[in-house]
Amino acid sequence: MFWARKNDGQILLTAYGGAGSVTGANFLLAARGKKILIDSGFFQGDPESEKKNWEPFPYQPSQIDWLLVTHAHADHIGRIPKLVRDGFRGVIYSTKETKEISAVMFDDALRLMTNESRNVGQPVLYEGADIDKALSLWREIPYHEAVSLGEDISFVAKDAGHILGSAMYEISIERERILFTGDLGNSPSPLLRDTELPAGTIYMVMESVYGDRNHESREATKNKLFEMVNRVIKEKGLLIIPAFSLERTQVILHDLNNMVESGRIPPVPVFLDSPLAIKVTEIYKQNTANFNERIRKELETDDIWNFPKLNFTLKAFDSAQIQKTPRPKIIIAGSGMSEGGRVISHEKKYLSDGNTTILLVGFQAPGTLGRMLYDGLKEVKIEGERYKVKANIEKIPGYSSHKDSDHLVKFVEAALPTLKKVFVAMGEPKASNFLAQRLRDELGVNAICPERGKSYQLV
Ligand SMILES: [Zn+2]
């Protein structure tokens, strides 16, 4: 009897993804005979990492009761339809925005996978029916409203300020409070509200993408873009921005919008050449309630994602016209790490052109073409062909939508009065270890980097 009761009180945490890597976020919390999953993301990067997406889940999806989704980036949602295909029938929770963006992301991923399957015979991870089933199990929840899951378990979503709809989940199991941060925003964000601070947190599972680096300020970031655009226009050049369709694209478009409309740069053709980014921008336009106050004010008088000579090239025919348009011109195209998407055709054409600038504005996973450019390789292979890199490769890391090292430490510091342990996850080992060390040294916190697949007993 004693053992049964003791077992009842246990809370076990296991990181099945997002441990030792940025991507593949997938955390399981087991308590009171129930199982809560937090995120079910894609592993991204080199082929070895991506292979993991096709492996069976290391638990029975049919035995998971609830899935909480922090935000709609692929490395947090990519395997949700597979989870459903493999038997999950519980309830999925997220904010309204996360659900809407996820639906668009799933369709896009399925389209890419179907093409890949035709080309190289790789089986698809899921089908359209699995996406529909996942969406039918999905409930939208607002920020700050406690959701009771019974049996002394409840949770509340707080604004993570990372991308539109992003949430942290504070899960209460009796008196224990466990915070899953998902990804934490680079506040103050141009569009979003600031990340909320943790309070009463006892255990924290946090991201650490930039655990070992700091970003430039928002002003410096905007100025760098302005100077780069100005130079490209003067030199009648071409600027290619491989951009993440979600958040980064909308932030950059907003900055370009303000530069053009204030007359700081003349209108030049800007192409948003990504069907996914175009659809996501549409969702942004329709869901403005959770933007920060400054942007909501701006939206009263201006469509902040529309300015002279901005073209949304949804159809392949329009996309093909871009390369015929004379310079100067700017192309924003997915994918952000140059892994598939329309940016590839532009990179094939312009990588060896000295009057082209390729601007990297986000994290580039090891093994991706984006990472090879980031690392300064002078020759790269795309789809089996070799290309000399003569284009200027530039970086503006300040466009990241992740907190940097100093701000991650500050975030944890806010939870110090109640904090017992921090699990530093969702980062490359170097970044996670560096941050864990900082948390131990500077805050005296018990901080560890969880091993993938190992269970940690919280209580
Ligand atoms: Zn994210």
Structural descriptors:
single chain, 459 residues, alpha/beta, Metallo-beta-lactamase, Chain A, Rossmann fold, 2 domains, seven-stranded mixed β-sheet, 22 strands, 33% helix, globular, disordered N terminus, binds zinc ion
Describe the structure in your own words.
The structure is a single chain. By secondary structure, this protein is α/β, with parallel strands linked by helices. It has two domains: 2-213 and 401-457, Metallo-beta-lactamase, Chain A; 218-399, Rossmann fold (3-Layer(aba) Sandwich), CATH 3.40.50.10890. Helix content is 33%, strand content 21%. The chain is built from 15 helices and 22 strands. It has helices spanning 2-8, 47-51, 74-77, 80-85, 96-120, 128-136, 218-234, 248-261, 275-286, 293-301, 316-322, 343-350, 369-374, 405-413, 429-443; strands at 11-17, 26-31, 34-38, 66-68, 91-94, 138-140, 147-148, 153-159, 167-173, 176-180, 203-206, 238-242, 270-273, 310-312, 329-333, 356-360, 379-382, 385-388, 392-395, 421-424, 447-448, 455-457. The strands form four sheets. It has a seven-stranded mixed sheet with strand order 6-5-4-3-2-1-22. Strands 7-8-9-10-11-20-21 form a seven-stranded mixed sheet, with helices on one face. Strands 14-13-15-12-16-19 form a six-stranded parallel sheet, with helices on both faces. Helix 15 links the parallel strand 20 and strand 21 (447-448). Helix 14 (405-413) crosses helix 15 (429-443). The longest helix is centred in the first third of the chain and has 25 residues, at 96-120. It is globular.
